[in-house]
Amino acid sequence: MITSGIEYSVRRTKRRSIAIRVERDGSVTVFAPYFTSNDLIEQSILKNVSWILKKQAEVRKFLSENDIVSFSEQELDEIKHLAGEKIPPVFRLCANVVGVEPKKLTLRPMISKWGSCSSRGHVSINTLLALAPDNVMRYIVIHELCHLKHMDHSKSFKELLYLYCPDHVECDKWLSTEGVVLSRRLRESIVNKNGCKS
Ligand SMILES: [Zn+2]
Questions:
Q1: What is the largest CA-CA distance in the chain?
Q2: I want to staple 121 with a disulfide (CB 3.0 to 4.6 A). Which of 24, 103, 128, 140 is the partner?
């Protein structure tokens, strides 16, 4: 059985359906009818992992930088899993739209960039984008794919990119706010893992 890896507390009430709430500190509460099985609750968490992680990221945005919470091992695994599910189909679709044939797609967590593209057609995409809104994920994927036509950030490159992503201003805004918080959380996780932080 796959478990969500998300920690949550359960409050059983007279209600008729399951509801999930992300609290102001990022913790998760599940409200469930009295006789709901634990399996059903876990299933409902699993179905909403993407939403919960996104909500938690939003909540943590309001915490100061010193309070940035690292991802747990389980959360990192979940992000990797989500990325593997969400990014490749978008990648294939966008390659068709842009009319390019990338040779290889690599998904990996990256702290300082969202994606990269080599002249040999190897594209890397940051797994953290699994937690981004769909249009932002698409924006980064298309950015890297447009590099297969223009290997720079020239005017022609931008014209092509903006043609496919008319909402690029909104996407850039997300990346520089919510996106930065996600990167910081990842950096924090790696620092913690390496034991460099007291
Ligand atoms: Zn670029």
A1: 61
A2: 103
Put simply, whether the predicted model's pTM sits higher than 0.85 gets the answer no
Residue 147 near residue 114, CB atoms below 8 Å: no
Q: What residue ranges define each of the domains in the chain, with the CATH number in brackets?
A: 8-47 (no CATH), 67-193 (3.30.2010.10)
Q: How far is CA 38 from the centre of its chain?
A: 27
Task: Give 1 Cα–ligand 1 centroid separation in angstroms.
Answer: 40
Distance 9 CA to ligand 1 centre (A): 42
- What is the whole-number distance in angstroms between the Cα of residue 28 and the centre of ligand 1? 37
Residue whose entry in the numeric block shows the structure tokens 């609750």: 41
Give distance in angstroms: CA of 145 to centre of ligand 1: 9
Q: What spacing in Å lies between the alpha carbon of 142 and ligand 1's midpoint?
A: 10
**Digit-coded pLDDT (tens) for 81-122:** 999 999 999 999 999 999 999 999 999 999 989 999 998 999
Gap from CA of 143 to ligand 1 centroid (Å): 6
CA distances from 70 to 109, 111, 120 (A): 14, 13, 35
Please state, in angstroms and rounded to a whole number, the distance separating the CA atoms of residues 121 and 96. Answer: 14
